[in-house]
Amino acid sequence: MLFPEQGMEADGTYEQGFVGIRFCQECNNMLYPKEDKENRILLYACRNCDYQQEADNSCIYVNKITHEVDELTQIIADVSQDPTLPRTEDHPCAKCGHKEAVFFQSHSARAEVHIKLHFSFTTLLGFILCWVTAHVYR
Length: 138
Prior knowledge:
Elements: E1 2-3, E2 21-22, E3 31-36, E4 41-46, E5 52-54, H1 76-80, E6 87-88, E7 101-106, H2 111-117, E8 125-130, E9 136-137
Antiparallel strand pairs: 1-2, 3-4, 4-5, 6-7, 7-8, 8-9
Domain DNA-directed RNA polymerase II subunit RPB9-like zinc ribbon: 22-75
Family: Belongs to the archaeal RpoM/eukaryotic RPA12/RPB9/RPC11 RNA polymerase family.
InterPro entries: DNA-dir_RNA_pol-M_15_CS, Rpa12/Rpb9/Rpc10/TFS, Zn_ribbon_RPB9, Zn_ribbon_RPB9_C
């Protein structure tokens, strides 16, 4: 048995990369991945009883990391105080008109970010940070 039903396709199979929690059919405790070295297969085994089942997928863990451009606003306080970042007075802040700004760049591999911001896949997303209001603009 797998929990939760997230990631389940209409035919009852799970999408590639989905790893669910499996439960013992005898005592309902969680099943843990275990290697059968003799047969060279992956099993899920109960630590409470002797129940085991063969894994239908060799993936036991998925770690998906996505970064949003909006996450940059969480590091603004540190960025504005960083003396190693380049500064400019050529791009005044759109909110307050303050002239001194801090440059920083963010790489993005997500296609929807590039499309939304009208950048090609090879460009960097360039941002400028107002020193006074911490307003991020490009």
